[in-house]
Amino acid sequence: MTKMIIFLSLVSMSIIGGAIFYQYFKLESPVSPPVIEIIPASYDFGDIPYKKVETTFKIKNLGGENLEILGVSTSCGCTKAYAKENIIPPGGETELIVTFDPNLMDYKVVGKVFRAVFVSSNDPLNEEVRIDITANVVEG
Questions:
Q1: What residue segments make up the domains of the chain, in order of their start?
Q2: 25-38: per-residue pLDDT in tens?
Q3: Alpha-carbon distance 76 to 85, whole Å?
């Protein structure tokens, strides 16, 4: 009889101990962090007259958590950019609109122009993405 009580006590403690262990150390499948991808990675407007031009990029979230666009900036006042949505769910995408206007430069430039757009996000491995923009401004 004593052996039976000891046996049942050990089984009960094992079950209770297992439940406690499971509560504190349960293994959950990890959720991957947000992952930003911008397509295309760069853009060349080619030959353009002295006027404003625009293009659209796609910002994708390849991760498992929401991607937050924390800011969009440019290397020059002649280049403007904004994301249509600032929170992109896992697997989702939004548009990044970029305009370049040579009329907004401090001086008249003719020829090849290099500018950059910077997109900051909560992607822990790629907090800021740089997109290179080029154009060949021609008189006309």
A1: 36-137
A2: 555 557 899 999 99
A3: 23
Sheet with 128-137, strands from edge to edge, namely: 42-48, 128-137, 111-121, 67-74, 87-88
Q: Which two tokens stand for residue 39?
A: 């397509």
Q: Which has the closest alpha carbon to 46: 112, 135, 115?
A: 135
User: What is the SS3 assignment for 4?
Assistant: helix
Contacts of 129 (CB under 8 A, 6+ apart): 36, 38, 118, 119, 121
pLDDT tens by residue, 5-26: 665 565 566 676 665 666 655 5
Cis amide bond preceding 40, omega within 30: yes
CATH of 36-137, one of 2.60.40.10, 3.10.420.10, 3.10.129.10, 2.160.10.10: 2.60.40.10
Report pTM: 0.78
The one-letter code for the residue type at 18 is G
Cis (ω within 30 of 0) for the bond into 49? no
Could you tell me if 35 and 68 are in contact, meaning their C-beta atoms sit under 8 angstroms apart? no
Place of tokens 């404003």: 52
